[in-house]
Amino acid sequence: TMQQASEAMKAMHKDVNMDKIDQTMDDIREQTDRANEIADVISRPDALGFGDLDEDELNAELEELEQEELDKQLLSAERAPVTLPQVPAGAVRAQQQISPLHQANAHADEDDELNELRESMGMLA
């Protein structure tokens, strides 16, 4: 009934202190405002002193720093070992020349294989 609902609401609000609620709400608003200010400052690069930086200048400076680091690494590196290919101790025989007849036979064999493949796939030569 309405009477019971009214009594229940009175019981719930009996221990409520409006001054504490107002103070808590003021604290929440203050912290929210502060968080918004911080977010605003962070989102503006000029607020941090970065607004006047030129991207090309930054890239050039980065490249220069990277080159300096590479130079340091190269100067402090030990000498790389040089390995030479193995050289035969004995006499080296001349490479054989492939005869024109052998070359022609090799081409004919390849042509025959290609024609067989075409036939097996149903393609006409």
What does this structure look like?
- The protein has 125 residues and is an all-alpha fold.
- 65% of the residues lie in helices and 0% in strands.
- It is built from four helices and no strands.
- The protein has helices at residues 2-13, 18-43, 55-76, 100-120.
- The radius of gyration is 44 Å and the shape is elongated.
- The mean pLDDT is 82.
Topology of this structure?
Blueprint: H1 2-13, H2 18-43, H3 55-76, H4 100-120
Give the integer mean of the pLDDT values. Answer: 82
Radius of gyration (Å): 44 Å
Contiguous runs where pLDDT drops below 50 for at least 5 residues = none
Helix proportion range: 55-70%
Order of helices and strands: HHHH
Shape estimate: elongated
Assembly state here?
A: single chain
Strand content: under 5%
Q: Largest sheet, if any? A: none
Class derived from helix and strand content: mainly alpha
With helices defined by DSSP (H or I, 4 residues minimum), what is the helix count? 4
Distance between the termini: 99 Å
Tell me how many strands there are.
Answer: 0
